[in-house]
Amino acid sequence: MRQSEVIKYYSRKEIGNELVRFAKNREVAAKFREGSFGKRPDTIQFPRDVISLAKDGAFSFHASEEHWSNPMQIKTDMRRVELDKLREGWDLVLDVDCKELEYSRICAQLLLDALEYHDVKSTSIKFSGGTGFHIGVPFEALPKQVRGNNTKDMFPEMPRIVAEYLKEFISTNLAQQILEKDEDLKKIGEKVGKTAKELLIKTNKGEEFSPYTFLEIDTLLISQRHLIRMPYSLHEKTGLVSLTINKKDFQNFKLDWAKPENAPVRDYFLNSEKVESEDATQLLVQAWDWKEKETKAEEKPKVIIPLEGKISEDKFPPCLKNILKGLEDGRKRSLFILINFLKRLNWSWEEIEKRVKEWNKKNAEPLKEGYIRSQINWYKKQGSTIPPPNCNVPNYYLDIGICKPDNLCKKIKNPLTYAAIRSKRKTYK
């Protein structure tokens, strides 16, 4: 692709306008044909800035996942506290890449499904321009705090945790769907440039096929001032457009769509204007809890005395009793609390499902049965649960309006402790 064609492409009004839209409050870097980046930090404020850089030899444009109050104040030697002060927020971007585009498509669809499972509605997806896809969730969809921490300051740790969590969440289905498509490991290996042996990993069950031997969902590459290819930027190796794709059309995506002459701007990547609420709250909280659980599992186990036998509802704290009366708001967060609370009090899955269904009928607007079933099945599949949130965690008991403490509540930090004391048990596991 000649540079004159590059200039012609970026001179299109709709392309320039979209790059300017996406660049707002972001650090931008132009990349040249030979692979080197232009100056950093830089910004794009007008379509003519794009054309000017293209005339200077720029082939592609990249922008930060982070939003800055003033990107031009960023310096390479800045301390973490200085960057946190300058940062206004960050977008969650999942970068899927594999030599075989069809495997990238399978993974990207599973991630979209996983986000939907966690009730994240404000997702968007784009072709990377190479052999993968980018899935985005705008900062406006994230909760302001996670377990008492300001979300805007949790970069890059929080997106790494979410990426790791979702990677684990879809791993079984990802392996199954790739094997269903190409049953022969040798055939899969040929497509991704590996031997059949290299597709296996050692587990406690023996050697098993792992798609992560050849497919990446970037986690470690997420870092301070991390850049992603901007939507509708060209790709310097393929000459294709990093095209935003309507989720309804994703399964029909073809590389021809991403040719510069076939790439009209019809959809927007990370469009914060369509975010109606902090719908990624559940995702971030569950990912954080999952990471804490993983971390604790690696530590030396502590001697604790587990609860024995099912604990009845008369021993429940006021907040759980208020949940069980039925709610107008906070039903999904309350379902998360209920499942983990009841299971930790040695209720069977059958008892939990029955009680949750009874509770759901009392809600002003009942949750869909399919949603409840999928949540319970998820924990069944994991074989374990996590403790319900502590009493002072934002977005839960106080915010839902179910925290009506009695005298015992003042002495405890978690609803499980309340139940343990009332039932005269020493602790909980």
Question: Main attributes?
Answer:
429 residues; alpha+beta; DNA primase, PRIM domain; 2 domains; 14 strands
Description:
- By secondary structure, the chain is α+β, with helices and mostly antiparallel strands.
- The protein has two domains: 272 residues, Alpha-Beta Complex (DNA primase, PRIM domain), CATH 3.90.920.10; 121 residues, no CATH class.
- Helices cover 38% and strands 13% of the residues.
- The chain is built from 14 helices and 14 strands.
- The chain has a five-stranded antiparallel β-sheet with strand order 12-5-7-6-14.
- β8 and β9 form a beta hairpin.
- α2 packs across α3, α6 crosses α8 and α10 packs antiparallel against α11.
- The longest helix is centred in the middle third of the chain and has 25 residues.
- The protein starts with a helix and ends in a 7-residue tail after the last helix.
Break the fold down into its secondary structure elements and pairings.
Elements lengths: L2 H8 L2 H11 L4 E5 L14 H9 L2 E7 L1 E3 L11 H7 E4 L1 E6 L3 H17 L6 E4 L4 E6 L7 E2 L2 E2 L6 H25 L3 H8 L7 E4 L2 E4 L6 E2 L9 E3 L14 E2 L35 H18 L19 H7 L6 H14 L4 H14 L6 H14 L14 H4 L14 H8 L7
Antiparallel strand pairs: 1-2, 2-13, 3-4, 5-7, 5-12, 6-7, 6-14, 8-9, 10-11
Helix pairs in contact: 1-3, 2-3, 5-6, 6-8, 10-11, 11-12
CATH superfamily of the largest domain: DNA primase, PRIM domain
Q: How large is the share of residues in beta strands? A: 5-15%
CATH architecture tag of the largest domain: Alpha-Beta Complex
Structural class: alpha+beta
Order of helices and strands: HHEHEEHEEHEEEEHHEEEEEHHHHHHH
Instruction: Give the radius of gyration.
Output: 24 Å
- CATH structural fold name of the largest domain: DNA primase, PRIM domain
Number of strands: 14
Q: What's the helix count?
A: 14
Tally of individual domains: 2
Poorly predicted runs: 299-306
User: Could you name the CATH class of the largest domain?
Assistant: Alpha Beta
Spatial strand arrangement across the major sheet = 12-5-7-6-14
Distance N terminus to C terminus? 62 Å
Fraction of helical residues? 25-40%
Q: Major sheet: size, sense and barrel closure? A: 5 strands, antiparallel
Determine the mean pLDDT. Answer: 89
